[in-house]
Amino acid sequence: MTSAAPTAPAVRTAPAPSATLAVDKVGGRIGAVISGVRLGGDLDEATVAEIRAALLEHKVVFFRDQHHLDAEGHEAFGRLLGELVAHPTVPSVDGRYALGIDNDHGGRANQWHTDVTFVPAYPAFSILRAEVVPPYGGNTLWANTAAAYAELPQPLRVLADSVRGVHTNDYDYAATRPEAPSRELEQHRKVFTAVKFQTEHPVVRVHPETGERTLVLGSFLQKLTGFTGHDSRALIGVLQSHVERPENTVRWQWRAGDVAIWDNRATQHYGVDDSDAHERTLRRITVDGDVPVGVDGRPSTLLAPRSVPEPTYGIASGASTNGVLAQS
Ligand SMILES: [Fe+2]
């Protein structure tokens, strides 16, 4: 009987990037499907870097069949992209970071918007995971706000570069809703506006990672600074129409287990409210962003309240205001 062979010393090598990762464009200007990746907190650095690069290039990336991902795995993966932040007013569904995007909770996202632009440092990335999807409808659309800026005629780009706008979570809700609000909608709105925020952003921000110029518009934008209400609405309408042009958008039909990640600094999105009473349950987490800076170098400014209040869990989205608070 020979003695057991000595155990080979454990060798730690740097994990190689996933050889199977593939990025396939969905649309010409926005959207790509990433396959060959099992999302989670244990992904190696090289794979995370590949995902981040694809995200910055394509603005929204989709992953199919991530059924293994639960709330914890969702968060663990999110942390690989940055610090997680809670919604400033809406309590999470799990007592941690996840925001419920459920069609039975009264919240509706059927307006073009960028997440949480009513605070200065709104999220850099949102990561949305589909748990239950309806048999039809309930698609989400994303629009590329860098492509929208790039296609503007030059005089309009010059104008947009020099304008700022005030975003608020206390916008005129009734003006955008043809139907009478249900009790659930009223309740959701009450929670959503428990603290009323007002933030002035440049209409064009310089993306901190890509250097691209992107339009900062969407349904939280109330008014352009220095314009009458009439002029403001007309100008916003012209700029926003470029964002919504079908060539600048992609539409995603959800399947359970899908995950979508978007660069919230370079996109708007729209949740189509057409799945009737069928259940639609998605979970969103957000990764902290930084304070936007305009073409002239001026940062966004929090006008109200005096500071971003702490949510019940974690730090608030927009907490990293770099001290850029309203002048009293
Ligand atoms: Fe949203």
From TrEMBL:
Domain of life of the source: Bacteria
Entry annotated with the keyword Transmembrane helix: no
Requisite cofactors: Fe(2+)
Molecular function terms, GO-annotated: dioxygenase activity
Keyword rRNA processing set for record: no
Boundaries of every TauD/TfdA-like domain copy: 27-286
Pfam families the record matches: TauD
SUPFAM superfamilies the UniProt entry points to: Clavaminate synthase-like (SSF51197)
Key words of the record: Dioxygenase, Iron, Metal-binding, Oxidoreductase
Homology family: Belongs to the TfdA dioxygenase family.
Identification of the protein by name: TauD/TfdA dioxygenase family protein
Organism: Streptomyces cellulosae
